[in-house]
Amino acid sequence: MARRHDPDTFITKSGFFIRKMEFLRIKKTIELLNAGPSDLVLDVGCGAGNLLGLLNRGQAVGVEPSQYLLDQARARLAKGFRAGVSPLNPVVERGPASTRGEPSGLVLGSGGKGDSPALNPYTSRVNLIKGEGEKLPFPNETFDRVVCSEVLEHARFPDIILQEISRVAKSGALIVVTWPNEIFIQWTKRLVIALGIKKLIAGRYNMSDNMLDDWHVREIDQRWIADQAQNGLVLRNVGAIPCGLTPYHYVACLQKRWAASLAK
Question: Does domain 7-262 have CATH number 3.40.50.150?
Fold first, then answer.
C-alpha cells in the first residue's frame, strides 16, 4: 500500500500547490512541537522521514510499520536531505558527540526486529525503529514531545494510537497531531477534475479521485480529536493549514496532563 500511495512522492513530487501545502503543514507542526535541545521527540508513523529531516533540536525517534518507508527515511537522513521541500534549519548533525553535551552523532537503527528502543540522547540525533503505532515499543513516560502527522486517517484503530501516544509521553509533554480535511479536499478534487487540471495539481504523484479509498480508511475531524483528548490529554488549540478559509489540513496541539491532575 505504501508503494502504491507513496507519501514521499506525494510530499516531494506533486504539483506546486500540494508541495506548498505539505511544506506549510510540516513547518507548522515543528513550530508547535517547540522542541528544546535536550528533548526526546517521537514521530509516530514517520513515513519517509520528511518531518524528521527538518527537526533541528533534540533527539528524534521515528516509528514506522512499513519497511519500504523506513528504508526511504534511512536514506533521506543518511544523505542529509531536507524532505524535498524548502529547508527550515540545518539538521542531522554528523561527527563525534558535542562537548556541550548535546546530541550530534547520527545513528540509524536497522529497522529490524533486533532494534533496541533503549536510547542515549547524547550519542545520536535520530533513531529509526520498525513498529506499530498501536503498540509502541517504549516504556511509559519516555518522550518530551510526540508528533503524529497524517497518520490517524490510515489507521483502523486511531483511538488506540492516541492512547499509546499518551502512555509514552511524559506528564506535561506536548503532542502535535495533524490530519487532512477530507470534505474540503474532496470538494477541491472534484473541481480540479472538472476543470481538467488534475495532472497539473498532482504532478508526478498518482492521485486518487476519492480520498476515502483503501489508503484513507476513516475520516478524522475536530470533534473526534476533542473527544479523544478527554482521556488524559488537554486540547490546547487547533489550527488550519494554510488558513481558516481554505482548511486543507488541521493541526492540533495537545498536552498530557500532569501526574497530579491525573490522580484526581
Answer: yes
